[in-house]
Amino acid sequence: xxxxxxxxxxxxxxxxxxxxxxxxxxxxxxxxxxxxxxxxxxxxxxxxxxxxxxxxxxxxxxxxxxxxxxxxxxxxxxxxxxxxxxxxxxxxxxxxxxxxxxxxxxxxxxxxxxxxxxxxxxxxxxxxxxxxxxxxxxxxxxxxxxxxxxxxxxxxxxxxxxxxxxxxxxxxxxxxxxx
Length: 179
Fold this sequence. Notes:
Keywords: Signal. The protein is of the alpha+beta class. The protein has helices at residues 3-18, 21-24, 32-40, 46-65, 74-84, and strands spanning 109-119, 125-129, 134-137, 152-157, 163-167, 173-177.
C-alpha cells in the first residue's frame, strides 16, 4: 500500500469514528465514496483488496477535491457551533446534535470581548463581539457602566430560547443575536 493510500484511509476512518452514533446508524446517509471504501474491507484476496482500496481512495480524494465530500473533525465542529451560537437554525444535525451527543460538546455560553457597542434608536444596546456577531438588547435593564471595546462579555442560553449577556461582571441584560 502506498503512503498516500494509508494516509487517506486513516483520515477517512478517523472521520467516520468521530461521527455521532446517530449518523453511524444510518448508512444510507453516508457518501457513496465512503461506502465504496468500506466495502473494500470485505474483499478477501490481498491483491484485490489493495486494488479496491487504491481505487476507492482515489475516488474519495476526487470527491474531496471537488467538494462533493467534506470532512471535518470535532474541533472544527466545536468552532462552527461557537460561531453559530445564538442563531435560529433548523436542526438537521449537520454539526452533530444527535441523540448521542456528548453534553460537553453543546455550546451553552460563549465568553468573548466586545468589539463595538452603541445605543440604538430605541435606547437599547447593540453589541458587536470579537467573532463578528451582533447582539441586541431586548429588555429595559440599565447597565451601570458602558460597554467598551475590549470589555469582557459572557453570553449564555436562558429560558425559552432566550439569551443573557453579562458585561464586565455587571447584572445581565437579555439579548438576541442579529447577525
